[in-house]
Automatic annotation (TrEMBL):
Source species: Antarcticirhabdus aurantiaca
Taxonomy of the source species: Bacteria, Pseudomonadati, Pseudomonadota, Alphaproteobacteria, Hyphomicrobiales
Protein name: PAS domain-containing protein
């Protein structure tokens, strides 16, 4: 994900600057993306957004972002994590359905008193994101 936003992986591990991320989003999609990002932090939980991202300095690609905002024990947002899927992916509809179902399961798990179940689903989402990243078109990163 860092490469898509033009951020070094080591820098991205420390967290990405939202303004830097927004600059890579198509100008027509930025306002909606900003509102969505603010809403995600205001009411932590899962999110799904669709926007165009500047992929190589000159070309915009449609992406679908799926993820969640994570909080500390006091309910304060700590970070967001998720996956980005290109809409050109051959398996995009299946990938989107898998992630959407996992996000729905995470939302439901958070409604329970079980503290382990949401963490397990988050781990599965992380694994799914890694597997999706392995299969992504590497040309997006150049």
């Amino acid at each position: 994900m860092c490469a898509l936003f033009g951020v070094d992986a080591a820098e991205g591990a420390q967290g990405m600057d939202p303004d830097r991320m927004l600059r890579r989003i198509h100008p027509d999609d930025r306002a909606e993306a900003l509102v969505g990002l603010q809403a995600t932090f205001a009411a932590p939980g899962s999110y799904t957004y669709r926007y165009r991202l500047l992929s190589d300095g000159s070309e915009f690609r449609w992406l679908r972002a799926h993820g969640a905002c994570f909080t500390d024990e006091a309910g304060r947002p700590t970070h967001i994590s998720g996956v980005l899927l290109t809409e050109a992916s051959a398996n995009a509809s299946l990938e989107v359905e898998i992630v959407e179902r996992l996000m729905g399961a995470l939302d439901l798990a958070r409604l329970t008193n079980d503290t382990v179940l949401p963490r397990l689903i988050e781990a599965v989402l992380l694994h799914a994101g890694r597997e999706l990243a392995k299969g992504m078109d590497r040309s997006m990163f150049t």
